[in-house]
């Protein structure tokens, strides 16, 4: 059976409370999804300075004692079309 594929906010909060991450970086969905997932993390007690909502190309450096955004690399959107008629596109 297939459903929407995205967990409901209460399910996400349950997972955050079970795992209790030291740092949190939402990774799936559009920017608005990342933002709201970060808000749920704050609501479960994860401090804002330990939550990272990144953009494409941001570098998050992790060590045993810290996490910080240390830079950015060039990144962009790439469309990969593997359909058989793609080779005839102009």
Task: Describe, in short, the structure shown.
The protein is of the alpha+beta class and 90 residues long.
Keywords:
90 residues, alpha+beta, two-stranded antiparallel sheet, 2 helices, 27% helix, flat
Task: Report on this structure.
Helix content is 27%, strand content 12%. The protein is of the alpha+beta class and 90 residues long. The longest helix has 13 residues, at 31-43. Strands 1-2 form a two-stranded antiparallel sheet. The termini are far apart. It is flat.
Secondary structure: number of strands: 2
Q: Helix count, per DSSP? A: 2
* Coarse shape: flat
* Rg calculated over all Cα atoms: 17 Å
Structural class: alpha+beta
Q: Level of helix content?
A: 25-40%
- Integer average pLDDT: 87
Distance between the termini: 39 Å
Question: Topology of this structure?
Answer:
Layout: H1 9-19, H2 31-43, E1 58-62, E2 67-72
């Amino acid at each position: 059976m297939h459903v929407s594929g995205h967990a409901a906010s209460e399910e996400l909060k349950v997972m955050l409370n079970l795992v209790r991450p030291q740092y949190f970086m939402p990774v799936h969905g559009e920017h608005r999804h990342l933002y709201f997932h970060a808000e749920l993390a704050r609501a479960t007690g994860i401090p804002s300075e330990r939550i990272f909502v990144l953009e494409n190309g941001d570098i998050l450096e992790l060590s045993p004692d810290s996490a910080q955004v240390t830079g950015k690399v060039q990144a962009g959107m790439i469309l990969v079309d593997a359909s058989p008629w793609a080779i005839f596109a102009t």
